């Protein structure tokens, strides 16, 4: 039954038979996917589609696999059809990530893979904003555990989908924490999640994106104005400052050393801002090392101040009450989740935003422009050092 339904629901592009390319219709497969693949996807505890948990013979893994066996652009002679792109968005269960998932899904051109730590929340979130079933799936990812990151990457590879875009969006902000808390591997939680988790994820998935035949491939890391000390917002104390990275090199574990990258006293708000500097430096180091070789576009952005998101959940209630009107009427830096989602979706899929190594921002008319990063956030030597230390911490070097 489910397979019949799959057959009728398959997009026309999916059943095009190509002379060249990796069409597996000739093999012992069912619409481009082997039965063993169907079962594997089905049994994968990390892969959940929107039809319920671990149901057998589901439609969505079949679609995913079909996408993998369909070349990005159909062969000459046939009408040129671009297959749906596959985009992973971390932290798509709320705020900017959810709004971006919705914006991309609505185009009908993307399979959005929502990489989230909470299945149920992600499923409810997708439903609540009306993302339609055939355009998304949910995979489990907890960025505060490197083991979870590795499992996620393995599960994604096993799904057989090509990876066309990766959006490192998830983050936590702990402005009122008096003491540091830690990831599974013992790194300070904000930098461990926002930077190290994403660093490992993107390193593990780089080859998948390299191998994709999609005409444009993008790797986006969400940055922020508050990590850039060349702005007013970036000068609100405590300011971001990675120093000489001695705390990071020491493991950020607060055992015999600091939980802060610069080796100083713990400050949750600073740790978040530092993590955003890491995100922006990481993007540039990726660009430097891999853009020419892979053609992948690496970019970061400040989407605007989305003052209503879950990011501020740990802030005091008075802040949460006053922050949105403050940003709306005083700084005028406020943007709605919907608008911010459109901006990030643009960076993922707008042909005109294909430049690599760029930090995008938007002016008050919502026009994008290449923004200037602060001195620290564009320090090439720091980016290299950060890369090397991070590699060691996540077990890649
Ligand atoms: C640290 O505080 C925190 O300690 C840390 O936990 C972390 O959150 C970190 O950067 C994040 O900040 C920094 C400190 C900076 O900020 C504060 O003490 C609180 C400021 C709260 C600002 C947001 C709310 C502002 C609400 C204004 C009212 C809006 C009403 C809108 C009504 C619309 C009507 C139509 O502190 C400083 O840097 C001090 C510098 C102060 C300069 C002030 C500039 C003018 C801005 C005007 C707003 C002033 C509000 C101050 C009152 C805050 C009361 C909570
Ligand atoms: P939200 O809190 O709404 O969204 C953050 C997302 O990250 C949530 O989906 C959350 O999951 C997820 N997340 C947190 N920890 C983990 C983890 N360990 N593993 C997997 N996912 C995790 O905040 P925003 O939408 O505001 O933030 C999104 C991005 O935008 C962040 O990178 C932030 O730095 C950036 N940004 C935000 C601005 C703003 O004004 N809000 C301004 C500039 C940049 P869950 O739903 O389960 O909690
Ligand atoms: Mg900030 C002038 C413009 C401006 C902008 C665009 C932001 C964005 N902020 C601005 C100004 C100010 N802020 C001023 C003048 C103050 C002092 C009153 C101020 C304060 C402030 C606080 C306490 N702002 C904050 C906080 C937070 O806790 C938020 C933060 O730093 O999170 C790390 C925050 C933010 N201000 C912004 C943005 C985008 C944030 C959210 C931070 C982020 O997502 O990176």
UniProtKB/TrEMBL annotation:
One of its GO terms (biological process) is chlorophyll biosynthetic process. InterPro entries: NAD(P)-bd_dom_sf, Prochl_reduct, SDR_fam. The keyword Calcium does not apply. Pathway: Porphyrin-containing compound metabolism; chlorophyll biosynthesis. Pfam families: adh_short. It is an enzyme of class 1 (oxidoreductase). The keyword RNA-binding does not apply. Its main location: plastid. GO terms for cellular component: chloroplast. Coiled coil: none annotated. Its EC number is 1.3.1.33. It catalyses: chlorophyllide a + NADP(+) = protochlorophyllide a + NADPH + H(+). Keywords: Chlorophyll biosynthesis, Chloroplast, NADP, Oxidoreductase, Photosynthesis, Plastid, Transit peptide. It is found in: Plastid, Chloroplast. NCBIfam families: LPOR (TIGR01289). Belongs to the short-chain dehydrogenases/reductases (SDR) family. POR subfamily. Phototransformation of protochlorophyllide (Pchlide) to chlorophyllide (Chlide). This is NADPH-protochlorophyllide oxidoreductase.
């Amino acid at each position: 039954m489910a397979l019949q339904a799959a057959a009728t629901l398959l997009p026309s592009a999916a059943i095009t038979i190509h002379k060249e390319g990796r069409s597996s219709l000739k093999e012992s497969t069912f619409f481009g996917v082997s039965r063993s693949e169907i079962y594997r996807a089905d049994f994968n505890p990390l892969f959940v589609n929107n039809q319920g948990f671990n149901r057998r013979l589901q439609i969505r893994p079949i679609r995913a696999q079909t996408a993998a066996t369909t070349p990005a652009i159909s062969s000459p002679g046939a009408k040129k059809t671009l297959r749906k792109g596959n985009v992973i968005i971390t932290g798509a269960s709320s705020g900017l990530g959810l709004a971006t998932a919705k914006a991309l899904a609505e185009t009908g051109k993307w399979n959005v893979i929502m990489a989230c730590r909470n299945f149920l929340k992600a499923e409810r979130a997708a439903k609540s904003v009306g993302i339609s079933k055939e355009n998304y799936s949910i995979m489990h990812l907890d960025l505060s555990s490197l083991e979870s990151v590795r499992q996620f990457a393995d599960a994604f590879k096993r799904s057989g989908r090509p990876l066309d875009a990766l959006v490192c969006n998830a983050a936590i902000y702990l402005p009122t924490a008096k003491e540091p808390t830690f990831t599974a591997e013992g790194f300070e939680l904000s930098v461990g999640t926002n930077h190290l988790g994403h660093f490992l994820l993107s390193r593990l998935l780089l080859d998948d994106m390299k191998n994709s035949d999609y005409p444009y491939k993008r790797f986006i890391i969400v940055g922020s104005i508050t990590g850039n000390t060349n702005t007013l917002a970036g000068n609100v104390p405590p300011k971001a400052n990675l120093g000489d990275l001695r705390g990071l090199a020491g493991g950020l574990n607060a055992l015999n050393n600091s939980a802060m990258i610069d080796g100083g006293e713990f400050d949750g708000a600073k740790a978040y801002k530092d993590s955003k500097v890491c995100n922006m430096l990481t993007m540039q180091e990726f660009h430097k090392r891999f853009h020419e070789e892979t053609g992948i576009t690496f970019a970061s952005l400040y989407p605007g101040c989305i003052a209503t998101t879950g990011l501020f959940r740990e802030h005091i209630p008075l802040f949460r009450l006053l922050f949105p009107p403050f940003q709306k009427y005083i700084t005028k830096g406020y943007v709605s989740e919907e608008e911010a989602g459109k901006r990030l979706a643009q960076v993922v899929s707008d042909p005109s935003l294909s430049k690599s190594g760029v930090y995008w921002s938007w002016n008050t008319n919502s026009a994008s422009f290449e923004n200037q990063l602060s001195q620290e956030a564009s320090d090439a030597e720091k980016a290299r050092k950060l890369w090397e230390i991070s590699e060691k911490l996540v077990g890649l070097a």
